[in-house]
Design brief:
By secondary structure, this protein is of the alpha+beta class. The chain has a single domain (3-234), classed as 2-Layer Sandwich (BirA Bifunctional Protein, domain 2), CATH 3.30.930. The protein is 47% helix and 11% strand. It has nine helices and five strands. The protein has helices at residues 3-14, 21-32, 35-40, 42-66, 75-78, 135-147, 149-161, 187-190, 209-234, and strands at 99-103, 114-119, 124-130, 166-167, 195-201. A five-stranded antiparallel beta sheet has the order 1-2-3-5-4. Helix 2 packs across helix 4 (42-66), helix 4 (42-66) packs across helix 9 and helix 6 (135-147) packs across helix 7 (149-161). The longest helix has 26 residues, at 209-234. It is globular, with a radius of gyration of 20 Å.
């Protein structure tokens, strides 16, 4: 066994699942929403949320490597903080009440094309795709959909075989003027601001580490067509010229 294989096996065996306290902690945090309460309960945060989430990232990354999926992550870079940035938000509550992590080709959050896991008392889900792409990236995705409608329809059909669909809760109500003459079959595509497919998972799955990791990576494998579609469009896309 090579050193890499040993590391993967160790990561997979170390993650046994999220404890029942994970969702209990997030629920309690939603009720209290104070720095004082958070600091008093920091041991619970570390044991029931932070440590298992980081172990999950390592196990997930190891399983993606085993299946030769071009997605990876590291505990340090792939998890999201519970602290909210309230500077420009109407919601001044200091903490989020859900957790998450993301794997990408580079292992860093800012890389286009994500594999995301959402953990919340309100319901968890896996997601893959392109979330809030930069303006020039969004334009390139829309232009490609309009120029190659069959490829986009084929993508949707391939995802449908796995009972997946591309969803966007932020999509425009109307087709942008620049695409007013596009094929009406892909009008919904050029209205999208995000290109995401997702699948909910049952709460009980959180406590079974091996099954959770397997279900997550099964989803990523089935959702890979949307990532490959977007990567093909965005790879090598020149950065927009600065105005200055």
């Amino acid at each position: 066994m090579t050193a890499k294989q040993a590391a993967r096996t160790k990561a997979q065996t170390q993650f046994q699942g999220f404890p029942p306290g994970t969702l209990k902690f997030l629920k309690a945090l939603g009720f209290h929403q104070s720095r004082e309460w958070f600091e008093e309960n920091r041991p619970l945060y570390l044991a029931d949320f932070k440590a298992p989430l980081e172990a999950y990232v390592e196990a997930l990354s190891a399983e993606c490597a085993r299946r030769k999926l071009p997605l990876k992550g590291e505990a340090r870079y792939s998890t999201f903080r519970l602290h909210r940035d309230v500077r420009f938000s109407k919601n001044k509550e200091p903490y989020k009440t859900n957790g998450g992590c993301v794997l990408t080709r580079s292992g860093r959050k800012g890389t286009p094309g994500i594999f995301y896991t959402h953990i919340s008392p309100e319901g968890g889900f896996f997601a893959c795709g392109f979330y809030h792409p930069e303006p020039h990236q969004l334009l390139a995705l829309r232009q490609t959909i309009a120029a190659k409608p069959k490829a986009f329809l084929d993508l949707e059909a391939k995802l449908a075989e796995a009972k997946l669909e591309i969803v966007d809760r932020e999509q425009l109500k109307r087709v942008p003027n620049a695409f007013s003459d596009c094929d009406p079959r892909i009008g919904h595509g050029v209205r999208m601001k995000n290109f995401i497919t997702r699948r909910a998972y049952p709460e009980k799955l959180l406590q079974d580490g091996p099954k959770l990791v397997a279900a997550a990576v099964d989803f990523a494998q089935q959702a890979m067509p949307i990532l490959k579609w977007g990567w093909k469009i965005l790879d090598g896309l020149p950065e927009p010229k600065s105005q200055g």
